[in-house]
Structure formats: structure tokens, C-alpha cells
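User: C-alpha cells in, sequence out, please.
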């Protein structure tokens, strides 16, 4: 018989043995995991079943991350081509290019916001399309393919993701035209911008579950949030009364406050993002061209104004008295109105709408230097900055110089073509979006830079007659309601931005104002409305005829000869017009030519 080891202690009654005690926590955790698995098993089986029978796939047609998650690409490979992802259709035009670039193709990707997109129209009249047309006409060595990567409300932060993606698609050139959306994107998408990669991955994994998609659909939430003004794109525009006004929301006008520190941070981030995009291009050995964008100064009042802080009740009373007095005097005595505005300025010089009003008076008095100065001050003081700050323009030129990147100064080009160097509705259809002629001009100044950089052997000149014929052929290919739909879309965008609040500020007060209003209406093929504006201009000043003749020539140059001909015919039949008969007949003969 074996004798038990006397050194081994027996456990006391009711006490577990040491070995059993060591195994107990493990067993406890195993039991817990087992119970959790049993509890989740119905959901796991349901998810597996939904996937097997292909039921419950999310019906979302937009990217729930709004482009901030680099894992959701802009383009999806479908067979032998890449096409714009259906999840990004809310923000981008549908585009397509071959997965393997043909040997004879020169491929350009144009990155930016709604200007690149082509708002208030679409890709067919945005500058990337005109650039493609021009480059194919001015050289025969390569077949040029320009891909429009303009995202509505996209700023430099999200464009960096786009640049990194398209650098993989064998680009020969990337064109970057950005700057208007920096402050809008930072306010609207701050929660998305601040999410970490881990948070985005977790959210993406949850949203990809079929069970979650079914629950969201049942709750009516299986659609992307209203993150940008693009819910209607290629279909008929939404009615204005149905529009969900983004800038009236909690993250809208109320979230925009005078905040110098925030402005400095956004400007610094813009500089960092543009430099990062330049580095992406450099790493991919892809040339980059920057475009310096401009904006509407003359016909765009500031979206939000605010008084200095602190601002006493007595100061506000005195300021309001002077401001209202100036407003009343504008109709009868511009110099007296300016004196009253100066009195208000002495009390609070930083109120953006006051600066706009003063610019307008200087403009009507013919002091264009002072007018331009105050229009720029008004833009800089706008608390809701949806137009590119001058400091952002300067940052781009600084980066271009540092990196040796070519920069196309579209802003300067349009200002040179504008009376007094102050662009308005003659070149922009709203606060920042160029008209069709503006997009053609942008393409026309980018193309020579491509030649100078020896990226393509571009002919030094493109005869005006050939250019006009090419433009006309392309415009004739557009749907009959293309221009009028653009006009309705501008109304929709105005509702989105709630710009109706400032409608009275844009009502013309002189002949040049009515001419510009007519040009804007003509842009959308609203000929009767345009002629109503032109007639008002002629009543105030018969010499407005020269501006209308110049505009008819511009329309002709854009390939819109039929519109130019109608304008001249109506002008010739108007008694108020002060136009030399010989000049009109010569122009009519020119427009009558095929």
C-alpha cells in the first residue's frame, strides 16, 4: 500500500482544489462566450441566409462617408472600364475610361468642386469637356481623354483622397481647381472629417450587414443623408419649394461665426492639402496644373454679416439710423448716400453688407478702384464664406512657386474682361459658378499651358472660325432643355443657400445692372426675361446698345449664334436702341453666315 505524501495539504471542507481554481476563470469565460454566441446565433443565421439568397442589400445610392473614407473609391472597375461608383453619384458626374490606357491616349483628370462638375449645368459644358475638345482639335499626336472628377461641395481634404486614387489610373496630367468649399466642408462635415480610420472601418462594417440594411429600410433610413446640394443631377431639377435648405439647418448659417482662429486653421489645412496633392502627383511622376479660381463680386452680396463685438445698444441704434438713411438716399443722391454709409462705417467698419452697399455706390459713381476694394472687403468679411478668400488665392500661388507647379490664373483672366475689373453676372451665374462662356475661357487658358510645359505638341493658335464651329457643334448636341434646366437648377441652389433673403440686394439699380441681369437670363435661354432686362437698360441709357452688341458677339464666339442673331434682331427693332444702322447690319450679316 502506498503512503500518501504528508507534505500535500488537503483542501479544507467547502474549498476548491488549486487546480480547479485555476481552471474556473477560463471555464467562466467560455460559458460567457457560449451564451453570447447562442444569443447572436439567430442574427448570424439570418445574415448568412440573407446573403445566400441575396436579400436585403443596402439600397443606398450615396456614399455614407461623403468621400472622407478612402476605402470607398470614386471609380469601380466594370469589365474593361472604370465607371463612377453608384455610391458617389450624388456628388459626381458619371464618367468612364478604359482600365488599360490605350497607347495613343493622353489621359487628364480634373479635380475640384462644383465648378469642375459644371454646376448649374453638368459635365457636357464644364471646362474639362471644353479642354478635351480643344486639345483634340489643336494637336493630332494623341487622343486626349479628360475625366471630370469635380465633386459638389468637395474641398481639398476630400480631393486628396481622389488624387491618391486617380494617380493609380495612368494619368498623364492632373488639373486641380479648388478653393471655394474649404469653409463649407469644414462646417458641414466636421464630424466625418474628425473620425479616425478605426471609427470609419467599424461604421463601414456595420452598414455593410444585410440585417442592418433591412432594419434601416424598415425605419426609412436606407438613404444617404442630405450632405450636399446635389440630390437632383441628371433628372429634372427639384422644385424649389421641395428643397431641403442646408444652410438653414443647425450646421448652416447659425454655425458660421466670426472666428479668426478657425479661419487661420482652415487656411493652413488648405495649404497642407494642396501640398499633399502636389506630393501625390510628384510620387506618381504625374504633372500637376493648378487653377486659380475667381468669383462674382459685383452681383453677389455677402451671405451673412455680423457686427463687431462688443456692440452696444446705442451704437447699434446710431449705426442702423445711418444705414437706413443711406439706403433711402441711394435712389436719389448717391453722394449723400455714400456720406451716410461712411457714418455707419465709422461706427462698425466690419459689417459685410455695409461694405457691399458702399462698393455698389462707388460702382455707380464710376469709381471702380474704390468699388473693387470694397467688394473685396465685403467678400473677406462675409461670415459664411462660400467664395474663395484672397488668402487662399495667395496660398496657391505660394505653393506653385515653392513646388515649381504651373498655375493658370482664371480669376485674373475674367477680371481683365470685366468692366472696371469687377466680374458679376456677365461671367458668373451665381456666387462662383461660371457661365458656359466662362468655362470655355478656362479651357482656353489651360490648353496653352499644357503646350508650354511640353506635355502635348499643341498648335500655337486655333482659328476663331474653327473654334466657333467646334463649340457650335458641341452645343447643338445638347438636349433641347439643357440650358433651361440649368436656370431651374440655379433657383434650386439659391434655395439651398437661402439666398432669397438677399434678393433685393441684387435687383438692378442702373443700366449696367440690367444688362448683366439680362446676360444671366440669356445664359439659361430665357430670352423673353433677358429682353425685359435689356429693355430696362435701354430705357435708362440708350448707349447700353454697345454692351448688348458686345454680348451678341460673345454669344457668337461661344457657338450660340442663333441666340446672338435673335438678340440683334430684337435690338434692331427697338426704338430705344441707339445703335448705328450700319454696325447692326454688318453684324447681322456676320451672324447669318453658316
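Assistant: Sequence out:
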Amino acid at each position: 500500500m502506498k503512503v500518501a505524501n504528508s507534505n500535500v495539504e488537503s483542501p479544507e471542507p467547502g474549498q476548491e482544489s488549486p487546480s480547479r481554481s485555476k481552471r474556473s476563470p477560463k471555464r467562466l469565460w467560455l460559458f460567457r462566450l457560449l451564451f453570447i454566441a447562442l444569443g447572436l446565433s439567430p442574427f448570424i443565421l439570418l445574415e448568412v441566409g440573407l446573403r445566400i439568397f441575396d436579400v436585403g442589400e443596402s439600397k443606398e445610392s450615396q456614399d455614407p462617408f461623403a468621400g472622407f473614407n478612402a476605402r470607398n473609391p470614386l471609380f469601380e472597375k466594370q469589365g474593361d472600364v472604370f465607371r463612377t461608383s453608384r455610391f458617389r453619384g450624388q456628388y459626381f458626374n458619371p464618367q468612364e475610361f478604359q482600365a488599360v490606357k490605350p497607347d495613343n491616349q493622353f489621359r487628364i483628370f480634373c479635380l475640384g468642386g462644383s465648378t469642375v462638375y459644371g454646376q448649374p449645368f453638368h459635365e457636357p459644358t464644364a471646362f474639362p469637356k471644353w479642354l478635351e475638345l480643344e486639345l483634340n482639335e489643336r494637336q493630332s499626336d494623341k487622343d486626349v481623354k479628360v475625366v471630370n472628377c469635380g465633386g459638389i461641395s468637395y474641398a481639398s481634404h476630400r480631393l486628396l483622397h481622389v488624387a491618391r486614387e486617380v494617380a493609380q489610373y495612368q494619368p498623364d496630367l492632373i488639373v486641380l481647381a479648388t478653393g471655394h468649399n474649404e469653409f463649407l466642408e469644414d462646417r458641414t462635415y466636421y464630424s466625418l472629417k474628425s473620425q479616425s480610420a478605426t471609427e470609419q472601418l467599424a461604421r463601414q462594417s456595420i452598414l455593410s450587414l444585410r440585417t442592418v440594411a433591412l432594419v434601416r429600410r424598415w425605419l426609412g433610413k436606407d438613404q444617404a443623408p442630405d450632405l450636399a446640394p446635389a440630390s437632383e443631377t441628371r433628372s429634372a431639377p427639384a422644385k424649389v419649394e421641395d428643397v431641403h435648405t442646408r444652410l438653414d439647418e443647425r450646421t448652416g448659417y447659425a454655425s458660421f461665426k466670426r472666428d479668426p482662429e478657425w479661419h487661420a486653421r482652415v487656411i493652413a489645412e488648405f495649404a497642407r492639402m494642396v501640398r499633399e496633392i502636389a506630393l501625390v502627383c510628384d510620387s506618381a511622376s504625374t504633372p500637376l496644373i493648378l487653377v486659380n479660381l475667381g468669383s462674382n463680386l459685383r452681383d453677389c452680396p455677402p451671405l451673412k454679416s455680423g457686427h463687431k463685438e462688443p456692440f452696444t445698444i446705442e451704437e447699434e441704434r446710431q449705426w442702423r439710423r445711418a444705414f437706413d438713411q443711406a439706403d433711402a438716399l441711394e435712389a436719389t443722391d448717391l453722394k449723400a448716400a455714400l456720406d451716410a454709409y461712411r457714418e455707419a462705417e465709422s461706427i462698425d467698419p466690419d459689417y459685410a453688407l455695409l461694405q457691399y452697399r458702399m462698393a455698389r455706390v462707388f460702382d455707380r459713381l464710376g469709381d471702380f478702384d474704390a468699388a473693387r476694394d470694397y467688394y473685396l472687403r465685403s467678400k473677406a468679411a462675409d461670415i459664411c464664406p462660400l467664395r474663395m478668400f484672397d488668402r487662399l488665392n495667395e496660398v496657391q500661388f505660394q505653393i506653385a512657386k515653392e513646388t515649381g507647379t504651373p498655375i493658370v490664373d482664371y480669376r485674373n483672366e475674367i477680371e481683365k474682361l470685366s468692366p472696371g475689373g469687377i466680374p458679376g453676372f456677365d461671367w458668373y451665374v451665381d456666387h462662383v459658378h461660371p457661365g458656359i462662356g466662362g468655362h470655355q475661357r478656362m479651357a482656353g487658358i489651360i490648353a496653352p499651358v499644357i503646350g508650354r510645359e511640353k506635355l502635348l505638341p499643341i498648335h500655337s493658335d486655333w482659328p476663331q472660325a474653327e473654334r466657333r464651329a467646334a463649340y457650335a457643334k458641341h452645343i447643338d448636341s445638347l438636349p433641347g432643355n439643357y440650358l433651361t434646366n440649368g436656370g431651374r437648377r440655379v433657383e434650386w441652389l439659391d434655395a439651398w443657400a437661402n439666398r432669397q433673403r438677399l434678393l433685393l440686394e441684387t435687383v438692378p439699380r442702373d443700366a449696367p445692372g440690367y444688362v448683366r441681369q439680362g446676360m444671366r437670363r440669356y445664359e439659361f435661354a430665357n430670352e423673353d426675361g433677358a429682353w425685359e432686362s435689356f429693355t430696362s437698360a435701354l430705357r435708362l441709357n440708350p448707349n447700353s446698345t454697345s454692351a448688348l452688341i458686345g454680348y451678341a458677339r460673345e454669344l457668337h464666339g461661344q457657338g450660340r449664334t442663333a441666340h446672338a442673331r435673335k438678340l440683334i434682331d430684337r435690338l434692331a427693332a427697338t426704338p430705344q436702341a441707339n445703335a448705328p444702322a450700319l454696325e447692326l447690319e454688318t453684324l447681322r450679316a456676320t451672324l447669318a453666315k453658316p
